[in-house]
Amino acid sequence: MSETIENYIYCRVIFEENGKSYYYLTDDEEIKPLDLVVVPVGIDGHEKIAQVVKVEKYTIHTVPYPLDKIKKIIHKCKLTDFRKLENKLAEDKLKRESVDDEELSINLLNLGVQAYRRGDYEIAKEYYEDAAQLGNSQAACNLGYIYAYGRTGVKDSEKAFYYFVQASLDGNSNGSYKVGDAYFYGDFVEKNKLLAFKYYQISEEQLGPEDLDIRSDIYYRLALCYHQGAGVVPDDMGALTYINLAQTSAYYDRLIGKYNYEELKRKIENLREKILLNLNHVDNKTKIRLLKADITKVDNVDAIVNAANTSLLGGGGVDGAIHRVAGPLLLKECRQLNGCEVGQAKITSGYNLPVEYVIHTVGPIWKGGNTDESQLLAACYRNSLHLAQKCNIRKIAFPAISTGIYGYPVVEATKIAFQVVKEYVQDNPGDFDLVEFILFDDSTYNVYLKETGSNLIEL
């Protein structure tokens, strides 16, 4: 210690766990009694929190303890220091008091949950990791959520999948349905509806009395698989059984204030309506309807059609809007499709859109009408309907393909769109319940209305 300092400030501090007092030096003249400070403890100098009970100043000639044997206060305690060290004390106490690894893992899990709820995600992650290493399946599942949502920084789908699988193997229902989601949507792993359905079934089998808050999610997913024939033979009676269970379970979600209750409730109600329509379908009539709306908000159909470009990686107009709302997983799936030729169509999931599917078709650029534009535009509608038919999609919505930046004259494009849809529906009676033309502005809507003669037609 340098002897050029005129006064030395001694702080007497106490530690909560033993109540004993110790002396530390400080350079901070603003420190006062009752302040919390971070101090070094032990031979290794690890940090702990102490409370100042007395502050005294001494000259070099009157110091009560040798300067070279007194440690210095590091700094006043910040909130982050307090939480970190407070949790370390709590963890040490739990380790001393826990009688076995199972009890310790539960206590560590609870500490992680407390840290997560107050937003200390890094601390929560550390507790979950310790608990997961002791075999706690819920801690492993919670780690999966931390990585899936990027709570500690960047989203990491690989680590999320790893921890969800670990939780599933240890019998955790929540982990199993998240593995099912990964296969259903192709998040990190390749999309596989058979495996998705298998894990949803496993998740149902693993449900316990403590899993009330995830029952509606699992039942909804099983209903969706049966309705769509995803990994299982299509069965709307089976789908109805599960959607009714989901609807019943959703009442509990409302009581506990589940964060995604409203969104899940809407999905359950929409799917139940589709299932009942299928079960009650008694005629072969198809409705063709005009609607002035934003296609990204349409939620009464199974699929919307995207007027895409050949890369399928997003662009302007309708294409860009659909990608923005659907989110990054849509782009990820589109990258696996290797583009699309003009006039052809490919299908993906809808992700954050309020529909299950997006059918991407590439319209022609208008070059005066002498380069097969009309045949290619007709192929867009025809191939989109054919793909929908193959996927058991009964309700589909189209934008006005190619009439935006591709410059196709609206009147000519409207005649082709309506003629192709009309002929396809008539040639395939009973395969579609609803075909909508979603038109963004009044001028385009009026052109369609003039061509069709009505905003609702039954064929």
UniProtKB/TrEMBL annotation:
Domain Macro: 275-456
InterPro entries assigned: Macro_dom, Macro_dom-like, Sel1-like, TPR-like_helical_dom_sf
Superkingdom, taxonomy of origin: Bacteria
PROSITE patterns, sorted: MACRO
A Pfam family it matches: Macro
NCBIfam families found in the cross-reference section: PRK00431.1-6 (NF001664)
Protein name as catalogued: O-acetyl-ADP-ribose deacetylase
Taxon lineage: Bacteria, Bacillati, Bacillota, Bacilli, Lactobacillales
